[in-house]
Design brief:
single chain; about 200 residues; alpha+beta; 6-stranded antiparallel sheet; rod-shaped
């Protein structure tokens, strides 16, 4: 009876130990996290590594793209080991308060690891900026359309106005005035007479 109880105790302890060994370890990285900065830059956070982690942030802002990378050992912080997901969410929450996710953050700090050793801090190690090619193509297309639309009115405005051709009444009055001047005036006064007659005949 005693031997049976001893064997049962050993079996229970073995099952407990096996259960602890099979318990999955919490991942120190989370999935990609999307967020927006204070100035509405659209950003994505991605994490990699195990003990020493690397964090990369990629953002797009008004025709430009920028990025930065951080590295550190937040795993030395007990609160991080207990719940890495909350840690990364706190990092994203702090970045949302900044106008620029990379220029304004040389060191990433969280409330849950304030008392952790210095090596727990995520320090910025690299950063860069480049033009957003897709956005530039769109701007160039729109500016080309505006220029093409603006050329036609300019050309039309540059054309000299077409004046209507004067026919009939003026030339007829001039001929009649000259005839009357020849009939009623001296030859030396034909020009003056025709002018005066033309004025009176309207």
């Amino acid at each position: 009876m005693k031997s049976f109880a001893l064997l049962l105790l050993v079996a229970i302890c073995s099952v407990r130990g096996l259960g602890q060994k099979l318990k999955p370890k919490k991942r120190s990285t989370a999935g990609d996290i999307n967020f927006r900065t204070k100035t509405k830059d659209t950003c994505r956070m991605s994490m990699s590594g195990d003990e020493e982690l690397k964090l990369r942030i990629d953002c797009k802002s008004q025709g430009m793209s920028y990025w930065c990378e951080f590295t550190g050992k937040p795993s030395v912080c007990r609160a991080f080991r207990n719940n890495p997901k909350i840690y990364w969410n706190q990092v994203a929450a702090e970045l949302r308060k900044l106008p620029h996710a990379c220029e304004s953050s040389q060191v990433l700090k969280t409330t849950m690891c304030q008392k952790a050793p210095p090596e727990a801090l995520m320090m910025q190690i690299a950063a860069g900026m480049e033009p957003d090619v897709a956005n530039q193509d769109q701007v160039q297309k729109s500016s080309t359309s505006v220029m093409a639309a603006g050329k036609s009115p300019a050309k039309e405005r540059g054309k000299p106005p077409v004046l209507p051709t004067q026919h009939g009444q003026g030339s007829e009055n001039e001929t009649e005035a000259m005839k009357l001047a020849r009939e009623h005036c001296w030859e030396s006064l034909h020009g003056v007479c025709s002018y005066i007659i033309g004025i009176f005949r309207g």
